[in-house]
C-alpha cells in the first residue's frame, strides 16, 4: 500500500512537471538510497540550490533520501518511466540495459580514484553518457562512490583462498555476481536496505561496499572484517528522465547541465572528507582492516572480462580506459 501511495504521488508530480515546465515553482523529485547528509544526497541538494538560483526560482529539487521512494531497482524504473524526474543511483544496475555502463563496473579496471576521474570527465565519460539516453534517461553527472571492498563477519580476507565458501551480498548486477563467483565465493543479489539483517541472521556472511556505506548503514556492527581489496571504483550516476529533460528550454538545459557539473566538485570534496571520517569511525568501533595482495584477485578476473567484454566497442573502451594516464 505504501508503495502504491508513493507511486501515485509521483505520477501527480510528474504530470505536473510535464504540463507546467515553464511555470513558476516546478518541483522536481530526486531519490537516493543513502541517509540525509551522505555526500551523494548533499551533492544533489547542492545541484538543486544552483538550479533554483539560476532559474530565479522557477525550478526546485526535493531530495528523498533513505530510500523513501524505494530501493534503487524500483527508483530506476520510476525515473525511466517519468514517475520521478531525478535519481542518484549506482551505475551497476544499468549494466543489463546500457552496455557501455559495463566498463566502469569491471573489477580492478581503474587504478585509483584519480584515474577514474580522468576517465569519466573525458571522452569515455561522454560516450557512456550518450549511451544512457537509449534507456530513457539523461546523465547529468557522475558522482564519487569510492572504492568498494569486501567485508564479512567470519574472518579476515588476505588471499583469494580466504574468499572460498563465503556468502556475499552484491549489487543486482551480473558482473558483480560473476566477480564473486570467480573468487570462489557465493554471491547473493539483495537490496541495500536488507544487508544488515541478512548478515545479522546469517543469510549472508558479508557484503562489499565503500567505507561511508559500511559506516552509515552500520554494517560494521555485524561484519567486523574489512578487506581493502578495492575491486571496483564505480562512479554513481545522477540521472534525469529524458522526456522531462527534453521539455526544458535549451537555456534551462544548459543551466541544469552546468549546475550538475558544478555539483560534482562539491560532491567529490564531501566524499573525500566522509571516507576519512568513516574509516576512523569504524576502526574506533573495532573493525579489523586488512590489505590483501591484489594480484591474485586481479588474476582471477580473466573469466569475468571474457564473459562481459564481448564486442569490439567494449574492448576498445577497456583499452582506452587503461591508456588514460
Question: How would you sum up this structure, described in words?
Answer:
The chain folds into two domains: 2-93 and 128-143 and 235-274, Bacterial extracellular solute-binding protein, family 7 (D-Maltodextrin-Binding Protein, domain 2, 3-Layer(aba) Sandwich); 148-233 and 277-323, D-Maltodextrin-Binding Protein, domain 2. The strands form three sheets. Strands 2-1-3-10-4 form a five-stranded mixed beta sheet, with helices on both faces. The protein has a four-stranded mixed beta sheet with strand order 8-5-9-11. Helix 2 (39-54) runs antiparallel to helix 11. The chain is globular and about 55 Å long. The chain is built from 14 helices and eleven strands. With 325 residues, it is α/β, with parallel strands linked by helices.
Short description:
With 325 residues, the protein is α/β, with parallel strands linked by helices. 47% of the residues lie in helices and 18% in strands.
Properties at a glance:
325 residues, alpha/beta, D-Maltodextrin-Binding Protein, domain 2, 5-stranded mixed sheet, 4-stranded mixed sheet, 18% strand, disordered N terminus, carbohydrate binding, DctP_fam, TRAP_DctP
